[in-house]
Specification:
Layout (H helix, E strand, L loop, with lengths): L13 H8 L5 H7 L8 E4 L3 E5 L9 E5 L12 H22 L3 E6 L11 E6 L10 H4 L10 H18 L1
Antiparallel strand pairs: 1-2, 2-3, 3-5, 4-5
């Protein structure tokens, strides 16, 4: 188990993220196509969904879960069984993250819009213990406060720990 702690953030160019998000290219679809400009660290894959590390995390270990098929509605484009299957994966990833990081809370949210990042996806992020209240909740997820930077070794170790936890659930 890794112990997460509150981490300092480095400045982040939010305007650049907005330009990229509104460029017309879907970051999930481009990642799945293998576009190197949209590379992410893959954690897990099912026949219908993909789990990968957020390239611009505001909290250490932020994971994204998305359907492989380009869908834009959090519920409206799914049959109930498809939605529940995806939510089961989200639950499994969140539990794996909880076991690996021992956070104060796990945040799960679907954000995006028709204007930017329209491919529906869910962020799963771990709030480490000790984060002051005024830096929690939505504030913890805001890029305007910067992003956390993680070394390649720590990132690889975390990704492997998550993969191991997910395999243990099978």
């Amino acid at each position: 188990m890794m112990t997460d702690v509150p981490r300092s953030r480095v400045p982040f160019d939010v305007d650049q993220l907005v330009r990229r998000s509104t460029s017309g290219l879907c970051f999930v679809c481009e990642f799945l196509r293998g576009n190197p400009a949209y590379e992410h660290v893959l954690i897990a894959e099912t026949p219908t969904a993909v789990v990968f590390l957020n390239k611009y995390p505001t909290l250490f270990g932020n994971v994204i879960v998305a359907p492989k098929e380009h869908r834009e509605q959090a519920t409206g484009e799914f049959r109930e069984n498809e939605y529940l299957e995806l939510q089961r994966l989200i639950y499994q990833v969140a539990e794996a993250m909880r076991r690996v990081l021992s956070p104060e809370r796990i945040y799960i949210l679907s954000i995006g819009s028709q204007a930017a990042n329209s491919h529906v996806h869910w962020h799963i992020a771990a709030l480490p213990p000790g984060v002051p209240l005024e830096q929690q909740q939505y504030h913890a997820m805001m890029h305007e406060r910067g992003v956390v930077q993680v070394g390649d070794t720590e990132l690889r170790e975390y990704a492997e720990a998550l993969r191991n936890e997910l395999r243990a659930e099978d």
